Structure prediction request, 377 residues.
Amino acid sequence: MKKKDPIRIAQIMGKWLGGGVESVVMNYYRHIDRNKIQFDFICDDDSTNIPYEEIEKLGGRVILIPPYQKVFKYHKELKKILKEGNYKIVHSHINTLSVFSLWAAKSAKVPVRIAHSHSTTNKKEKKKNLLKQLFKPFSKLFATDYFCCSELSGRWLFGNKTYDKGKVFLLNNAIDLNKFKYDSKLGMKKRKELKINKDTLVIGHIGRFVEQKNHRFLIDIFNEIHKKEKDSILLLAGQGPLIDEIKKKVEDLNLNNSVRFLGQRNDANELYQVFDVFLLPSLYEGLPVVGVEAQSSGNLCYLSNDMTKETKVMDSTKFMSIDQSAEEWCNNILKDLINYKKYDTEHEISKYGFNIEKEANNLENKYSEIIIFERSN
Prediction:
């Protein structure tokens, strides 16, 4: 009997720059049954961090297209690819910009068109917020199905009425718990590798250097911590357009010897073991996968309250307003650190729906359900 080919799903990724959305989609890709379902990743041709080798090894394909800013070229090329690939499902991960990808998918007569909300917005990011608000009313225009990473992101993009009717599928930003679980031996080994003393207080952050992640305020918080705890260091992993500005700020505050820029990393799971505190004072988030990873690794986590409260899994994780001063953040962090000890949090993380093995199975079932429903109509 001939083996049935897997269903190929076109995953619209936009610019692949090594951020959280790409991390989430790859987590699912590694854990789904690829004999039943395969992913093709459609990315803008100015992407910089696509893991070609891993995708091809897992049986997927990477297809490059012009960026959405070249609207007509983008539409024409994407429509052609979707038509020739005879895709039954297009899953778009580019938030409000999904209006462009799903318009091309509808033009190509793709029957299932998923719009996935991964984020929200903040008024402080004026230009980006304006664009998001402009495209937001069209988010459902060409979509047949709606996905989100959290209640907040689902309500923000698709509206309260749609969410309350149960029309938005919540897909958690799940992680590989084995990979990110607390490991004190690995933490000590990594500290030695990075030449950090075992008693040094390590504040950590993983994220792109973009407005959303609020690095300026993050540096202010660390500056206050460093005034009170001289044996402290800040590790920043990631890259992005604002990195030079943040390096200049670090220099102006005479923190050069206490702040390390680690660049784009593929060892995030090991870095979390080094951190004592994970800081994420973002202007906005949907549900940041780094927040889940950091908690899974046993870190004390301080997050801005401009993100979904579903990010908080551990009682020790705290939300603070970015309108509070850097000194207030510092004081609360140092107070909590007095009695804090890292420990294995795997049970709690799994209980809240962040176990990738279980969640990948939920995604498989959802894709199958959508396909069966589409065929019966």
In short: The chain has two domains: 7-174+355-375, 177-351. The longest helix spans residues 356-375. The first strand starts at residue 7 and ends at 14. Residues 177-351 form a domain with the Rossmann fold fold (CATH 3.40.50.2000).
